[in-house]
Amino acid sequence: MTPDATTDLPTAEPTSRTALVVGASGITGSALVDQLLAEDWEVLALSRGGSTRDGVGSVAADLRDPESLRTALADVRPTHVFFTAWQRQETEAENIAVNGGMVRDLLAALGHAPLQHVALVTGLKHYLGPFEAYAQGKVPETPFHEEEPRLETPNFYYAQEDELFAAAARQGFTWSVHRSHTVIGHAVGNAMNMGLTLAVAATLSNELDLPFAFPGSEAQWNSLTDMTDAGLLAEQMVWASTDPAGADEAFNIVNGDVFRWRWLWPRLAAYLGVDPARVVGPDGDPRPLEQQLTEHEGAWPAIAEKYGLVETDISRLASWWHTDADLGRPMEVVTDMSKSREAGFLGYRRTERSFTDLFDRYRAEKLIPTP
Q1: With 231 labelled, which of 30, 270, 277, 347 sits at a CA distance of 20 to 30 A?
Q2: Which residue range or ranges hold the PRISE-like Rossmann-fold domain (predicted)?
Q3: Domains in the chain, ordered, with CATH?
């Protein structure tokens, strides 16, 4: 049965800049909504259940159902679209079909809208390959540059880009693609949330006297790397959607600093209250969090009750597999930001501060305990 598609939109006349944020409840989408509201945009949020956030119009639709999208968007006229959603599938062929199809069907359903710009979030799998062949085979030399040719391996990011390019040519809007590294930002129930995952791992370490063992490779521990603050990603997306220098371009987006995990891991552990004696670096093969901690997940409800935490379902907090994949790469991962710097985007974040500010927010919301 086709799900009902409804809209609950502001009654005021639209402003000259109306943003439709797809995936508004995720890490990137939440930060985007914050940024757009701060800049006085009219903001509409599209999701299956609709948005309940104050000051944000709601569009309820199923991204995988073209008819649901056509019905929900029939009277919606955004000037800008920010596409931050994806759905993980079992194989890359399914990822391509589903995630490429969502971009295609959403933009087709907005054929009537006065679109000026569409911004799409992808990531460094553009350079490293999809989950099925992640960081395997021949990959570009670091730092990664936007002009690198696509890998020969099929990749749902490429499918999303191709659907974006085709719709832009057909409908006459400009576009931008934003290739982030691992994103540090606020969300609950997100499948790719390293910040909250590490905080939960540290809590289990503290409460169960477990080692806080780095789950990844020696290469990741010792080599330079970088990350992306969700707020910075949002700033770049809004900049590219409104500045001519951002039109019809793909941009890398990372914080601007580099670090080694052998430096940052013990610092994050200390901030999360982990006994220094339990902080362990790599020793031979990676020790994935999924292997370390899955057997201890059953302790979380009691921990939540002990500290008065609001979420007892650890699966909504920790995404072991994603953190394991990022930290298990057997190579250096550094991203070049020259292209957007030269175009005029000069935003910067310090990665350690991005993490500690996020931990403070999760503590304030009673999602993790305060040591």
Answers
A1: 270
A2: 77-369
A3: 18-180 (3.40.50.720), 188-225+257-332+351-365 (no CATH)
